[in-house]
Amino acid sequence: GAVVSQHPSRVICKSGTSVKIECRSLDFQATTMFWYRQFPKQSLMLMATSNEGSKATYEQGVEKDKFLINHASLTLSTLTVTSAHPEDSSFYICSARGGRWTGELFFGEGSRLTVL
Amino acid sequence: KQEVTQIPAALSVPEGENLVLNCSFTDSAIYNLQWFRQDPGKGLTSLLLIQSSQREQTSGRLNASLDKSSGRSTLYIAASQPGDSATYLCAVQETSGSRLTFGEGTQLTVNP
């Protein structure tokens, strides 16, 4: 299947700093990528839909100024957590559509953010 | 608003047992349904995808069925192994390439 890569897999930062997470589609072009957040023992919560060349669409309750999403190319989307606080500590996962006709979505390995 | 429910939330079985995981969704107007596996601290691995026009899909010891009209899907795992221990998530997609709506997952433990 299609491959989606996330980097870094783990990051620890101090409160108040900003952290950037990258999501790459390695063997296909993705016009749309999705960013999810997952709390321990809970399911995935969609944060935003990232569209190549245009602004991201955020879900209700997600602060767009805090979670900056950029989708500058067909193979790369980035999520920047600005002025991170301990409550932003979470597991962040991106996904992209790999199957043009099936609509199948493939997921990255996830990024564990810990804010001290 | 689409809601996806998975039952049971957790399941513990001895090795070798056949088992069924259940998934239900409230809006039957779906494009497809996917089953995923998630190991602790890891991302999601796609297991099976069933298009809305299909009734089932099989991959190795896994078989997923879909009854779109009743809003149900099952994931059947044959001859379970300790390596099958993980959280299994089902998710529905309402249009091609759109967001996925996830269930809460079933945490499976297969004991040797």
Quick summary of this structure?
Chain A is mostly beta strands and 116 residues long. In chain A, 0% of the residues lie in helices and 53% in strands. Chain A starts with a strand and ends with a strand.
Describe this structure in words.
The complex is a heterodimer of chains A (116) and B (112). Chain A has 116 residues and is an all-beta fold. Chain A has strands at residues 4-7, 10-13, 19-25, 32-38, 44-51, 57-58, 67-73, 76-81, 90-97, 105-107, 111-115. In chain A, strands 2, 4, 5, 6, 9, 10 and 11 form a seven-stranded mixed β-sheet that branches. A four-stranded antiparallel β-sheet of chain A has the order 1-3-8-7, with no helix packed on it. Chain A is globular. In chain B, the strands form two sheets. In chain B, strands 2, 4, 5, 9, 10 and 11 form a six-stranded mixed β-sheet that branches. In chain B, strands 1-3-8-7-6 form a five-stranded antiparallel β-sheet, with no helix packed on it. The model of chain B has no long low-confidence stretch (mean pLDDT 94). Chain B has strands spanning 4-7, 10-14, 19-25, 32-38, 44-51, 56-59, 62-67, 72-77, 86-93, 100-102, 106-111. Chain B contains no helices and eleven strands. Chain B is mainly beta. The interface between A and B is medium-sized, with 25 and 24 residues.
Fold blueprint:
The complex is a heterodimer of chains A (about 120) and B (about 110).
Chain A: E1 4-7, E2 10-13, E3 19-25, E4 32-38, E5 44-51, E6 57-58, E7 67-73, E8 76-81, E9 90-97, E10 105-107, E11 111-115
Parallel strand pairs in A: 2-11
Antiparallel strand pairs in A: 1-3, 3-8, 4-5, 4-9, 5-6, 7-8, 9-10, 9-11
Chain B: E1 4-7, E2 10-14, E3 19-25, E4 32-38, E5 44-51, E6 56-59, E7 62-67, E8 72-77, E9 86-93, E10 100-102, E11 106-111
Parallel strand pairs in B: 2-11
Antiparallel strand pairs in B: 1-3, 3-8, 4-5, 4-9, 6-7, 7-8, 9-10, 9-11
